[in-house]
Amino acid sequence: MFFGLGGVVGATVAADLLPLFSGAAVGNICDISSRLSRESIALAYPAISVSVWVIALAFAMLAGGIMGLVASYPALRVKEEWFLSMILLVGGETFRIVVTNTPEIGCGFNGLDGITTPFYWLSNYLPSGPLQAEVPTGLYAAVIVLLAIGCFVFAQKICNSPYGRLLKSVRDDKVAAEALAKDVSRVRKQIMVIGSIMAGLAGALYVYYIGVATPEDYIPALTFGIWVMMILGGYANNRGLLLGAFVITMLDRGSLVSGIALESYFPTLNSNLIVYGRYMVEAVILLLLLVFRRKGLLPETRVKTKAYTLFDFGKKNAKPSSQPAEVPPKGDATTG
Amino acid sequence: MTDEPILLVNGISKSFGGVKAVEGVSLSVKKGSITGLIGPNGSGKSTLFNLISGAEKKNPGGSIEFDGKQIDALPPHKRSELGMGRTFQTPRLFPGMTVLENTMVAPRGQKGERPFVAPLRRRWEGQEVELAKKAKEQMTRLEIDKLYGKLTSEISGGQMKLAQLSNALMEDPKMLLLDEPTAGVAPRLAQDIFQSITNERHERGTTFFIIEHRLEVLFKHVDTVFVMHQGRIIMEDKPEAIVKDKRLAEAYLGI
Predict the structure, then answer these.
(1) How close does chain A come to B99, measured CA to CA in Å?
(2) What count of Cα atoms within 13 Å lies in the side-chain half-sphere of residue B172?
(3) Please, what is the average pLDDT of chain A?
(4) Is residue B107 a contact partner of residue A166, using CB atoms and an 8 Å limit?
(5) What is the mean pLDDT of residues A243-269?
(6) Are A176 and B93 an interchain contact pair (Cβ–Cβ within 8 Å)?
(7) Which end of chain B is less enclosed by CB atoms within 10 A, N or C?
(8) A-B contacts (CB, under 8 Å)
């Protein structure tokens, strides 16, 4: 839902601002002519192209954050995280159907295309050939990777802080956290907004990468794909999520490439079998994981704050002032 | 201990479906006292605590006043902010964290608990070390300092009770609701727990309101005892008087 919203908002902002900044008529952004004019503006004005991209990302993040705040209200009322995923799944599907049937939002069913990467203008300076298309896209992909690393570092830092400890306490025992004066609702809202801002950003980056925002991209399979990534890598572990995302994305893209490649060698083979077969593979992975390894490949990590390193027993940094008590004091007075 | 009440409960009730767990309970707990709440299983003691701390919503009607403020409408975390701590009958500690980290959840207003300060380690690390030291002192007072590097899943039930008490004491509450602090604990440790409670009361003037089944230990330390039976308070008196009262045996034995 947030991903799709980010995509549609990002594309709409880009389509409106590009002609506005360059002084051309805005007109109907869904027209084929406006698509062509978008592409030529992106080619001719590097500064406008990049600044519109930045603004589009900002709007996508804003939209994602607002939507996250709105969605956190029903989310606060459910007790189990699985119900929360149901809410989000239904929300995402509602979003897709509304966009598909409303031409005013992101051009409806047809989608909004002609969204070139912010480095499209580079092709002016490149010799014609395959490089002309590849360099701007490759550069943009590198920028996406940098932003992804930024998000990952942010998430890691948040997790290894008192806030990470607070998040775990709120997740694991709401009643106990409340008894310690923690405002559980506020924490849940905050983290929901942070997550949906990131999703909105991802949506806009994706649209800029593939060049089109179409509701057909936001099918529930996308949500399930992300879900499989989470369960595969190990939810509650940022590295695990990264690993899961990597494996599933490789499966997605790999099946597409290998399906087409194999078809050229074996003309009788239907490449759809391999390309769409990935959904079956994903489903099998999901089922196997849920039965045999519910925590995913990488288990949850501990919160690493200063307190963890200062006073942790059995670790190198343990303070010498404290008595060596690695062995559980069995039969001691403090044993119940 | 003064005569001034810190907690005033006036005619509150709670029903679950058709079962009346708490029925028109009124009581007052004096500031700085150790007050006991006893009664047979299922008499509504824990439910009463849940109503006071806000973990459960009371039926309409009646009122709860804490430290001079009406608190019935406040959510649990606000009540805790006003200085009302509590522990649970079955210890509720955060799994996957050490005893120290559990206690470190408790302090309020931590800088690093704000999401956009959290990534800036330098802004909160000093406070974190200070709080860790404070938490360690706290644990030393309760004699569980040896355990602080242990995961909460690795310690015994009695130690969990103490760890929970340490969490609740971390923010210097004005009043603590303790739900069976010594249930499932070795007899010697039970004495120690009550000794720690009495010490805390003398040192910091904390009020304790305690549900307990171990009457022989409880009666040595409390000032006043309430007896609850079938959702009502049936007696309130000094422990010496309560033990002599025939109604206590009647409530427990069902005669």
Answers:
(1) 10
(2) 4
(3) 80
(4) no
(5) 85
(6) yes
(7) C
(8) 166
CA distance B18 to chain A (A): 24
Q: What is the pLDDT of residues B85-135, one digit of tens each?
A: 999 988 888 888 888 888 888 888 888 888 888 888 888 888 888 888 888
ipTM of the complex: 0.86
**Integer angstrom CA distances of residue A34 from A46, A54, A114, A116, A128:** 18, 21, 8, 13, 25
- Cβ separation A179–B80 shorter than 8 A: yes
3-state SS, residue B127 = helix
10 Å Cβ neighbour count for A273?
13
| Sheet strands (E) in B105-243 | 175-179, 207-211, 224-229, 232-237
CB atoms within 10 A of CB B173: 22
Q: For an interface test with A, which of B53, B104, B120, B180 has the most A Cβ atoms less than 10 Å from its Cβ?
A: B104
Return all residues near B96 (Cβ < 8 A) that are at least 6 apart: A168, A172, A300, A302, B151, B153
Say yes or no to pLDDT of A234 above 60: yes
Domains of chain B: 1-83+173-255 (3.40.50.300), 93-170 (no CATH)
In the numeric block, the tokens 């801002």 are attached to A197
Domain assignments of chain A as residue spans, ordered by start:
1-218, 219-302
Q: Residue holding tokens 């300076």?
A: A125
